[in-house]
Amino acid sequence: MKDTVSLVTGGSRGIGRAISVALAEQGSHVYVNYRSGEAAAKETVALCEQAGGSADIIGFDVADSESVDGAIQTIKEKSGKIDVLVNNAGMSKDGLFIRMKDEDWHTTLSTNLHGAFYVARAVSKLMMKARTGSIVNISSVVGEMGNVGQAPYVTSKAGLIGLTKAMARELASRGVTVNAITPGFIDTEMTAALDEKLKEEHLKAIPLGRYGKAEEVAALVAFLASPQSKYITGQVVGINGGMYM
Ligand code: NAP
Hints:
The chain is of the alpha/beta class and 245 residues long. The chain has a single domain (5-237), classed as Rossmann fold, CATH 3.40.50. Helices cover 49% and strands 16% of the residues. It contains nine helices and seven strands; from the N terminus they run E-H-E-H-E-H-E-H-E-H-H-E-H-H-H-E. A seven-stranded parallel beta sheet has the order 3-2-1-4-5-6-7, with helices on both faces. The longest helix is centred in the middle third of the chain and has 29 residues, at 102-130. The mean pLDDT is 97. Bound molecules: NADP nicotinamide-adenine-dinucleotide phosphate (NAP). Residues 9-10, 12-16, 33-37, 61-63, 88-91, 111, 115, 138, 140, 183, 185-186, 188-191 line the site of NADP nicotinamide-adenine-dinucleotide phosphate.
């Protein structure tokens, strides 16, 4: 992936950090996006450099379409192109849906679904002109199978699968591939926040008997972002220890 440019949203920690490092290892120059964690994003850049690659931070809120357009313009001016986009930024406001507050519903959808749309729309214009590009959307296994207490999150991740397929069809003729991956439970700050009882329940449902690692997810994304996967588009690839087949 030498001489390519990648943008990873929410690259400051967790899965996004591992993806940034994996792409940098493959030789891509990585723009590490964050919303509030600038220091963490700088740590990701340092890890990319330790891995022999190069990276820059770029702060913007994916849920703010004007900021998104401005940031993509900045990358265009600095690097001239974006070859790989990983829509990874995500969050969850959990609770039973009958008690869900309007604000929590909207915040989750705005970040996970509308955010991915804003960034993909802006980046796709550059990719279409270049007649090449790879977009990987980070959905979730719960977008395929549902989950109790996560209605907005589940809805946003299921929506992301629909967006992936719609985009894949529209962009294929321009050489741009679009795929989604659906991780199961992966060890990150997001899952560390879950209560112990719930974690034990999860483990019972995972045939491989453990949570996944961010690096395992990153390896899949690096493949889908690489030239080796150019005949794969519109697909939803599971990485979940077998919890959903
Ligand atoms: P995480 O550790 O909570 O990290 C979330 C990242 O998203 C952070 O870098 C955060 O940046 C960024 N972010 C959040 N809202 C943002 C916004 N509005 N604009 C820009 N950046 C924003 O999460 P994770 O566990 O690594 O998850 C990464 C992705 O994988 C998410 O889409 C998540 O839904 C998905 N996923 C995770 C799991 C899992 O088990 N962990 C399973 C399936 C899918 P700041 O710190 O700067 O806010």
